[in-house]
Amino acid sequence: MEGDDCSFPPDSSDDHSQRGSVASSATLSPQDVLVYLFGDSAVHLSVEGLGSVTVQELGRSVREALHIPDSAQDAFAFWLSSPLLELQLKARHQPYKLCRQWQDLLYRFTEASEEDISQDEPCLQYRRNVFYPKSKELQIDDEGVLRLLYEEARSNILTSRYPCDPEHWNGLGALTVALEEGTALDSQQFTASIREKKLSSYLPAHVVMGSGGLFSTLRGKSSRHAGLEQNLLDEYRKISTSAGSSPPEPTQLLHQYLSTCHALPYYGCGFFFGEIDKPAQGILQRGKRKAVNVGICLEGVYVMDAKEKHVLLGLRFSELSWDHSYPEEEGDSHILWLEFDGEEDGTPVNKLLKIYSKQAELMSGFIEFCVELKTASEGGAAAETDGEAGRRGMLQRQGSVVCSRVHSLNTISYVDNGKEIKRLKPKRAASFFTRQATVPAYSAVQVTESLEQG
Predict the structure, then answer these.
(1) Which Pfam family, just one, is annotated for this protein (predicted)?
(2) Count of other CB atoms within 10 angstroms of residue 10
């Protein structure tokens, strides 16, 4: 997981870990629980009957401890997270019991080795609810709530879970400096502050590290860092100038940070892990796969290159159809199929992208639930307008990390009338899949008994 670890208190014999097993903690007296937050902080609770306590019951205690107003209580949810799997919990779930099932969940939804699974521990977090609309987030004026959202967004920017361009990361980094140090620093004070806390506190790790190997990194580190510091300073001066003689309120800067993040279409996504086929580059290159992160939110689906930190494919629900398939034989993979409009030598075609993942079933159900919520919240007329605007929109190659790179995907193509361009069976006249965000005739799937995943 790319965030702060959360857990029940660690075993006293383990001085090297801040994470403890929820399962083992249930036998301790008193039963103390640490609910971790982004930003290196935690809420310490003392819980009776830990083995049967529900998320709803824990939520009341955490909201009281953090002074979260009732108007913002839906902005957050409890998650069980580890480097191998992230699950957003429902109000009825019992964290202790789910932790006892954690290894079974890992075997079912990950490709991890037996050794990794045996050593993995879930951690309890209180973080953003993936189903909370961005429009409601902008209406929040409580500084404590905004800071919780800010810390999570900042973590996702710094770890490149949210890929962004230089204009984004420089502006966001400068806002962080303004929030921590104020807007009145001169150039020397600014540089001293940046160097004391290190650039990695303000910019994505891959930007600070650079590329080109160890020798190139060491040789160019000083000049590259100087350039990054100057870019941050330029953005910071813009904030200071706009503030004038009256320093901006923290809530104003927090709103500005979150609003900038809202421009990233995958803000607030739940994330899944998978692989896609690499485009064939000769006989020796066939059969290789690329690791991807799949973000799903109320707006759509985003497939991101896990290594290069950019978007490969971004689709609103009105632009795609989807389905998932189970392995037919031993050695086969679970697959999430995404179908969207494309072009092949000037001919409009439907394209299919295969995402190999044991989490395909979770992703499919997650998409359906998001479509259901979005349709219900927007109403038929508004969703239909949005659908007509996005349907059949061609995806173009662009330089931004936020934009789709359809040219770099290994997809299957076919035309609407069933004529094959690349071999594909069975032939279909229209869409392969009935699962589409058709408005207003969408039929919601019942997923109330499944776990949400992030």
Answers:
(1) FERM_M
(2) 19
Using the structure block, give the residue that is written with the tokens 């809202």: 262
Integer Cα distance of 379 and 194 in angstroms: 47
pLDDT at position 397: 33
Q: Give the model's pLDDT for residue 413.
A: 62
Beta carbons within 8 Å of 354's beta carbon, 6+ residues apart: 276, 277, 335, 336, 337, 412
Q: Which two tokens stand for residue 130?
A: 């993936």
3-state secondary structure 337-388: EEEEEEEECCEEEEEEEEEECCCHHHHHHHHHHHHHHHHHHHHHHHHHHHHH
Q: What is the pLDDT of residue 449?
A: 37
Q: Report whether CATH 1.20.80.10 matches the domain 133-212+224-264.
A: yes
CATH of the domain spanning 29-132: 3.10.20.90
- Looking up tokens 């964290």 gives 95
What is the spatial distance between Cα 342 and Cα 175, in angstroms, rounded to a whole number? 39
Q: Is the distance from CB of 136 to CB of 232 less than 8 angstroms? A: no
Which pairs from 138-144 meet CB under 8 Å and 24+ separation?
138/255, 138/258, 138/259, 138/262, 140/71, 140/72, 140/75, 141/251, 142/68, 142/69, 142/72, 143/250, 143/251, 143/254, 144/66, 144/67, 144/68
How do residues 146-172 score in pLDDT, each as one tens digit? 999 999 999 999 999 999 999 999 999
- The domains of the chain are located at 29-132, 133-212+224-264, 270-378+397-423
- Specify the CATH architecture of the domain 270-378+397-423: Roll (2.30)
CA 138 centroid distance within chain:
19
pTM of the complete model beyond 0.90: no
pLDDT tens-digit readout, 255-304: 999 999 999 999 999 999 999 998 877 666 666 899 999 999 999 999 99
Residue 177 host element (H or E): helix 166-181
Which residues of the chain fall short of a pLDDT of 70? 1-30, 211-220, 282-287, 379-454
CA atoms within 13 A on the CB side of 369: 20
- State yes or no: cis peptide before 10, omega within 30 of 0: no
What letter represents residue 181's amino acid?
A: E
Determine the pLDDT at residue 410.
Answer: 67
343 Cβ partners below 8 Å, 6+ apart? 349, 394
Contacts of 331 (CB under 8 A, 6+ apart): none
